[in-house]
Amino acid sequence: MGKRIVLGAVAILLVIAAAYASLYIAPEERTMGVVQRIFYFHVGSAWAGLLAFFVCFIGNLMYVWKREPKYDWLGVAGAEVGLVFTTVVLITGPIWAHPVWGIWWTWDARLTSTFVLWLLYVSYLLLRTLVEEPGRRALLSALFGIFAFIDVPLVFGAIRWWRTQHPSPVIMGGPGSGLDPTMRKVLFFSGLAMCVLMAFLMVERYVLEKMRSEVDILKREAEAQ
Amino acid sequence: MSLLSNTAILLGKELRTEFRSRELLATTAVFILIVLVLFSFAINPGTEEARQFAPGLLWLAILFASSLMFQSCFLREQSNDTLSSLRLAVSDPFAIFLAKLIANTLFLLLTELLMLPFFAIFYNIPLWSKLPVLILVLFVGSLGISIAGTAISAISAQARMRELLLPLLLLPLLTPVLVVSSLVTASLLDREPIVQWKGIGFLAVFDLIFLTALWLFGEYLLEE
Amino acid sequence: MKNLDSVFAAYLIGWGVFFLFYVSIAKRTSDLRAEVERLKNALPRGK
């Protein structure tokens, strides 16, 4: 319990520090001005979200292999937390795009792929609500989770190719464009802060799921009597 | 018995079952036709722009039709619990999947070929000269749809609200297929046709990846 | 500096989402704890 509180405190401190760095330490970008500072928050959240989904994927694989409930708890924690971070990416993207291009949605390759990613994991969670028995629910969602995660690079690849055929505003320069060294440091720091926040939220969600599983067992015992 | 012979026998069963009644083929074909017609009401069908949208609309129609077509794939095994007998009959459960996905690909391809003349007429697109490559694209795309569809069908059959769940799970997964197939078909049917081999290669990679995943994890989909 | 509003909006909304998520977990956790108490009281009586 103490460790969790420390993790939470560290996460909050890092997030505040990263925000400060993004707003005051990072140099101003030439073409877009101050709006571009959203980039550190936006990209940091994207990395944390993907990492959360990766943890979900590992949990899914481990569950199919070992069938221990704790891997199912890890899976659902990873999926929900990943979805939260992905939601933030999808919200900050348009907030960034609107002042710069005058439109809310630019069909930028990465943002569009992130939207599909969001849909995939919403489906994962919906599947879970539609299977009653815990063991079956864990197995089916683990298997779908595996298919969903291996689809992710294919989604990003396909949409990137699509966007080269039908170009549209790109929210941030492509991977080729160089980044000022200070910007790069602020970006990595922001990413780190987001990942620590992600870890904290995942631990909390995992503990909740563990508790819920125990309550289910208690309920069944109570009903049996 | 080997995987191939098991698959061949099961494939024969799948094909015989369908060709006895042909209900799946008929309903899927008519559904694609209905969707194509409805799309025409949603857009202005005679224009040059409609001609550019048409390949995307075709693949969208195929995707929607497939999410209906795959409903029965594993549901029909539930009524008399034929799935247990199937699993006992074969040594490798992958044979069951392989047979179903080959059958599903064939059914999809057949309905698509049946629909092509209507598509060409409605949207005023000459197909004949590009037919071989078009069939290749339809094949690689439909194979991907079938592999994912067969796997998802096994999952949704074990859950509630399966009629709605199957498209919900399947369609986001098939985004890459829709995107790339539409693009490749569009540039193939353009006034100056280009064959996008990169796209066809991508679809083949998609098929391979999902087939491998199904091979690795299929048996767990069939667990009791 | 109209665009500065966008930057602050993005950060505030983002943090808001994380905060709401945390609050929802905390609420579900305390609800569960209440239920555990209820069940633990119900069990010995049954025995």
Can you tag this structure with a few keywords?
heterotrimer, A: mainly alpha, Four Helix Bundle (Hemerythrin (Met), subunit A), 0% strand, globular, C: mainly alpha, 1 helix
Q: Identify the biggest protein-protein contact and residues per side.
A: A-C, 37 and 30 residues
Straight-line distance between termini of chain B = 23 Å
Q: How widely separated are the two ends of chain A?
A: 33 Å
What structural class do you assign from the helix and strand content of chain B? mainly alpha
Radius of gyration of chain A: 20 Å
Number of strands of chain A: 0
CATH class of chain A: Mainly Alpha
The main pleated sheet of chain A reads as: none
Could you characterize the architecture of this molecule?
- The complex is a heterotrimer of chains A (225), B (224) and C (47).
- Helix content of chain A is 81%, strand content 0%.
- Chain A is mostly helical and 225 residues long.
- The longest helix of chain A is centred in the C-terminal third of the chain and has 44 residues.
- Chain A is globular and about 70 Å long.
- The model of chain A has no long low-confidence stretch (mean pLDDT 91).
- With 224 residues, chain B is mostly helical.
- Chain B has one domain.
- Chain B contains ten helices and no strands.
- Chain C starts with a helix and ends with a helix.
